[in-house]
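Appendix B. One record, verbatim.
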Amino acid sequence: MDQSLRELCESLQEIFPNGQIPPGRNPDIGCIRLTLDEVKLEHRPLAFYFVIPFIAISDLGRLSLAKLHITPLPRSRIRLLPE
């Protein structure tokens, strides 16, 4: 996580080398209004919801046969805010 924050800070420093965001507006940026904008729904057949769990279970089985295990980071390595 520290590396990704460093990369983000470095990319911002490349874009704004003096640390100042220039005044003005960018007409290409739009606002997302979560309560007002239309939500595009996608209808799926009911069979879709029965098939997907079987695919997920078979993938987990193949991972365990290949001795690949997903392990989370230890809590000591997880920090939400930089120190």
